[in-house]
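Suppose you are handed a protein chain with no further information: no name, no annotation, nothing but its sequence. What can you learn? This example shows the usual starting point.
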Amino acid sequence: MPHREHHYQVNIEWTGNTGSGTESYKTYRRDFTVSAENKPDIPGSSDPAFLGDAARWNPEDLLLASASACHKLWYLHLCAEAGISVCSYVDRANGTMVEGIKGRFTGITLKPVITLRPSDDLELAEELHHRAHKLCFIANSLNFPVTCEPVITHALID
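A reasonable first move is to predict its three-dimensional structure. Written in structure tokens, the prediction is:
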């Protein structure tokens, strides 16, 4: 299979200058806006532990969201190909970052709760998570473990 390249471009604009720039560590806001052509803006900041705004997305949130969304998209694709109908999918993913000389993530755990139509094969649905993990572009790009702990059930019949 030939390699294909996909290119992405986003803009990050710092919006936290309170009038004196970065004159000192505590005088500026960490606020920024993520933008890309034809997409809604994402308000960002740093984690509150680093003087950021808790109401805005921080880079750690966005990394976790990227890993979760990529896995979900591959999973839905594989289910559709296998004839499995996903009725709902909610992931309550979590990640751990440690600070030190070099701060880094040490792991992400995806915890999707999936509901399938009553006739679908639960074992196959579970196996498709393993396949999705192997195909996930984001997980394949990270240098720490990404694990998946799915809970899969059938929809109730009325």
